[in-house]
Amino acid sequence: MSDERRRSDSTSSEERTARADSAVPRKSPRWRLLGLLFGIALALLGLDVVTKSLAIARLEGQPPVELFGGALYLVLFRNPGAAFSIATGLTWVLALLAIVVIGVIIWFAPKLRSKGWAVGIGLILGGATGNLADRIFREPGPLRGHVIDFLSVLAPDGSVWPVFNLADSGIVCGGVLIVLLALLGYDYDGTVQRKKSRDSADEDTDGGGAGTVEREDSDAESERSGATDPERGDGEEKS
């Protein structure tokens, strides 16, 4: 009986291990994910710097340029605040906040094991760095510089949607991607919450079943020992 129980326990443990392995997708090597994250951030930062420089060179003092039948306009706008022109008098606070965000992302990056999260955080890092560069290096001075915006949707004056730049687009797209991944249960470490919850429930069920078998075996052994024990009442009647 003990041999059968040991074989049953080993079989159930192997099944649990197999389910756990199938529930956790293969994790990408850390250096590849870091390369993906920082590669996206650098690419977005480069595009942001180039497009802002072109906007200053071509749009300064010029009327808005209409594109795609009025769906998009190119117009130069210097923004001292955040998106939607919020906190226009707190440029230095926004600059310090961007520095903190970038520092947290760099600290958190080695913990990533998900390509989706690496892409999303890379976009946020590139966008935050691009706007921070404006606040540090552009007029009127360090930590007080105005961010260069030049894209306006459906109207040339930003009345339909605030004027923005590629860095803003990267931050929004990265944030939306991370929120979607979180809602779908995909964690930054490469695992899926729904599968982990299902496996935990299966393990609890297996554990309860194994305990029942052990209790039944113990009761059976007690009955057998009681039937042959001369000190018990049944044994005395048989003798």
UniProtKB/TrEMBL annotation:
Membrane topology listed for this record: Multi-pass membrane protein
Main location: membrane
GO molecular function: aspartic-type endopeptidase activity
GO cellular component: plasma membrane
Keyword presence, Oxidoreductase: no
Catalytic residues in the record: D149, D168
Keywords: Aspartyl protease, Cell membrane, Hydrolase, Membrane, Protease, Transmembrane, Transmembrane helix
Bilayer-spanning residue ranges: 33-57, 82-109, 116-133, 169-188
Compartments reported by the entry: Cell membrane
Gene Ontology biological process terms, A to Z: proteolysis
Bias (Basic and acidic residues) ranges: 1-19, 221-239
Family: Belongs to the peptidase A8 family.
Function description: This protein specifically catalyzes the removal of signal peptides from prolipoproteins.
UniProt-recorded name of the protein: Lipoprotein signal peptidase
Originating organism: Actinopolyspora saharensis
The encoding gene: lspA
